[in-house]
Design goal:
The complex is a heterodimer of chains A (about 110) and B (about 120).
Chain A (H helix, E strand, L loop, with lengths): L4 E3 L2 E4 L5 E6 L6 E8 L3 E9 L2 E4 L8 E7 L2 E6 L8 E8 L8 E2 L3 E5 L1
Parallel strand pairs in A: 2-11
Antiparallel strand pairs in A: 1-3, 3-8, 4-5, 4-9, 5-6, 7-8, 9-10, 9-11
Chain B lengths: L2 E3 L4 E5 L4 E3 L2 E3 L6 E6 L5 E7 L5 E3 L5 E5 L4 E6 L8 E8 L9 E3 L3 E6 L1
Parallel strand pairs in B: 2-12
Antiparallel strand pairs in B: 1-4, 3-9, 5-6, 5-10, 7-8, 8-9, 10-11, 10-12
The chains are: A mainly beta (about 110), B mainly beta (about 120).
């Protein structure tokens, strides 16, 4: 079975550029989560969606970050403009909507902003 | 507020030795509890989960964890560690009440090193 698919796996870009990270959740899952992982701050939840609707975006660091889920099989996380402090590994995870369900993670996008 | 504490940042064990990774949680109701493992360059992989019932749960790769309500703990154990177990381990609790949310609260992780 296909797991959560993220693209690209690695992204290196210059400060000020727009960055778009993509995620395809597991088919049938109706919750999707975006996380950021850094050495300093660990694993942080940025935003999550239920049935394609954003439920909690309190973890989004600032207005430069935005996330969309236009349909049940695709989500994007966009950073515009990007800054060096945005360098991190970004993970997408999906699960069934029911409370207590485990989340299944993609392999992440390693983002480096120069 | 819900929280998860993993008191050990780094642990080193010898191959073949037993392992116990500690996890303490703060939660007002019966928690949903999880252990995940992250190998370098990979995402988090679910090892095991506790919802209810038997307090000793078995997971993949020979891991088990025991839920102790009186101690608010959910420690991860393995009787004999293999070199391939070297990774970072995360404990997580399901936030929210009555399934109102499926957000997870993660601990800060424990990095396990295995000596030959």
């Amino acid at each position: 079975d296909a797991g959560v698919i993220q693209s690209p796996r690695h992204e290196v870009t210059e400060m000020g550029q727009e960055v778009t990270l993509r995620c395809k959740p597991i088919s049938g899952h109706n919750s999707l989560f975006w996380y950021r992982q850094t050495m300093m701050r660990g694993l942080e939840l940025l935003i999550y969606f239920n049935n394609n609707v954003p439920i909690d975006d309190s973890g989004m660091p600032e207005d430069r970050f935005s996330a969309k889920m236009p349909n049940a099989s695709f989500s994007t996380l966009k950073i515009q403009p990007s800054e060096p402090r945005d360098s991190a590994v970004y993970f997408c995870a999906s699960s069934f909507r029911t409370g207590g369900q485990p989340q299944h993670f993609g392999d992440g996008t390693r983002l480096s902003i120069l | 507020a819900q929280s998860v504490t993993q008191p050990d940042i780094h642990i080193t064990v010898s191959e073949g030795a037993s392992l116990e990774l500690r996890c303490n949680y703060s939660y007002g109701a019966t928690p949903y509890l999880f252990w995940y493992v992250q190998s370098p360059g990979q995402g988090l992989q679910l090892l095991l989960k506790y919802f209810s019932g038997d307090t000793l749960v078995q997971g993949i790769k020979g891991f088990e964890a025991e839920f102790k309500r009186s101690q608010s703990s959910f420690n991860l154990r393995k009787p004999s560690v293999h070199w391939s177990d070297a990774a970072e381990y995360f404990c997580a609790v399901g936030a929210g009440y009555g399934g109102a949310t499926n957000k997870l609260i993660f601990g800060t992780g424990t990095l396990l090193a295995v000596q030959p």
